[in-house]
Fold this sequence. Notes:
Layout: E1 4-17, E2 20-32, E3 38-51, H1 54-78, H2 85-106, H3 118-132, H4 134-143, H5 147-171
Antiparallel strand pairs: 1-2, 2-3
Amino acid sequence: SGIMMLEYGKAVQESVYEQLHVVHEGRLKVIFTPDLKILSWEFCSRRHEELLPRRLVAPQVNQLLEVAQKWQSAIAESGSGGVSQQDLQISSNMLVTAGRQLAKSLEVQSLNDLGFTKRYVRSLQIAEVVNSMKDLMDFTQEANIGPIEALKRFPRQTSLAKVQMQRMQAMEPM
């Protein structure tokens, strides 16, 4: 038939967002028409990694390190029994604050379990709906009618076409 298929067992797809990169590893299959136009494109993801830019988490990591070093030097200077309750409370509060800021930085982009954003998944859903309406849009254009009129007539057209196809198939010699 002239259709060609290209298949890669280990392909990588990288999605770049404002504050996050997601690298998907999986299998890629592309099917081409005889004139080398893409007929279908399929990527089946096996796993993904989420990569955060250093600039996003470095300040919080440095703050955690600074708090830990202050705590360590305070204990070294006065021994484990010589640290005041107030110093421990201040250091503890600083550690918790830095930890919360780091956790907040890590939650920067909401991804689903497959490593895709809600916006990306929604775009795929919309594309699927539009694709399923292709016959209706073609009918609207061919009949040169508006969308509301096309919706009124389209079910009858498709059922008539199905009946005609069934009749033609029944008349064909086996």
